[in-house]
Amino acid sequence: MSRHYDVDAVRKEFPAVERMVYLDSGFQTPLARPVKAAIELFLREGFETAGPKSIWLDRVEQTRAKVARFLGVTADEIAFTKNTSESMNIAANALPLQAGDNVLMIHGDHPNNAYAFLNLQRKGVEVRFIPMTEIVDADSFAPFIDERTRAISMSHVTFHAGHRFDIESVGAMCVRNKLHFVVDVMQAIGVVPVNAKAIGASFIGSGSHKGLLVPQGLGLLYWDKTLKELEPAYLAAASLAEIPSDLIARADGMAPSPAARRFELGNFNLPAVHALGASLDMIEQIGVQNIQNHCFDLGDHLIARLDELDVRLVGPRERKHRAPHIYVIALPAADWLGHFEENGVRVSPERDGIRVSLGMFNTATDIDRLIDVIRRRGLGRPSVAA
């Protein structure tokens, strides 16, 4: 039982976790019953009525409002995208970057964030990488800022070692220096509280298939609506302030929507949007702060058990610098991944070892089973249960 909520009741909503030790939510979360029910409702309506489109689009706006409330912003600052990569590319191409300008990023951060900006090199934009250290905050970036620096882009939480960077201090520095700030919250959202206004970002992007519990194919983009000068690099009727009623394109009616809808291209991933509405209801009922605290407790337990085995943790150990839910164990993935699979433990290989990523449904028993599987290969002393 968690100190923060009834984790046993939550666990029952995820049937897959009863079939294996699931420690891979940083890759993809299992499907929850309420999420599955929302998708099934969409399919049933499409099957029986060929699609109540107006009802479906109303639900899109209801979900948009839920996302906005979840991030502490207004609904007209939220756009739906395909994934994090698309969100990052939309942001990179909307910024007013010119030849000779530079953007600061962290070396070794997620590649799809980096590629969105590296692709601007063809326009003469320079991308400068600062070192990735255990702590990254405003002071980490400050020495690299010069008169041609226009933006900083970074992840909130790293996928490969569970760093949790001080994005609030970086955002405050960007405001002081009149720099744009772009943040990838994919590995944070749904587990770590995200307050978009407190971050001070121009754009925040994410997918939804990790902490937000939705199958792949849906992304989110927050845009600070005070930055009206940030316009989309592409355009569709759905992006316009006024969609022509006769759907005939005209060159004199191309003003983008005053809302984040300016960054959308029309038809939505409707099943995934339905799923997201259900998952946000579930997350808010539990409380994202409670989910974070629960995962921190499990992480403390994992670190203590690894210390017993004298097995090193890759990445930060202190709560103030680590993500609550992502831990990389210094065991060579090539040697260990098959062993975990054979023993019914789902984890991911990462750069420096085996990634253990926690979800709202995990328990201390899951951690103990993981440790016992490690011990079976002769590391540490056998447990009493073994």
From TrEMBL:
Note whether Transferase occurs among the keywords. yes
Q: Which residues form the signal peptide?
A: none
Q: Name one Pfam family in it.
A: Aminotran_5
- Which InterPro entries does this entry report, sorted A to Z? Aminotrans_V_dom, PyrdxlP-dep_Trfase, PyrdxlP-dep_Trfase_major, PyrdxlP-dep_Trfase_small
- Look up the domain of life of the source: Bacteria
Q: Name one GO molecular function term.
A: transaminase activity
**Keyword set, alphabetical order:** Aminotransferase, Pyridoxal phosphate, Transferase
Describe the location of the Aminotransferase class V domain by residue ranges: 22-370
PANTHER family noted in UniProt: BLR3095 PROTEIN, CYSTEINE DESULFURASE
**Name of the protein described by the UniProt record:** Aminotransferase class V-fold PLP-dependent enzyme
Q: Species name for this entry?
A: Bradyrhizobium barranii
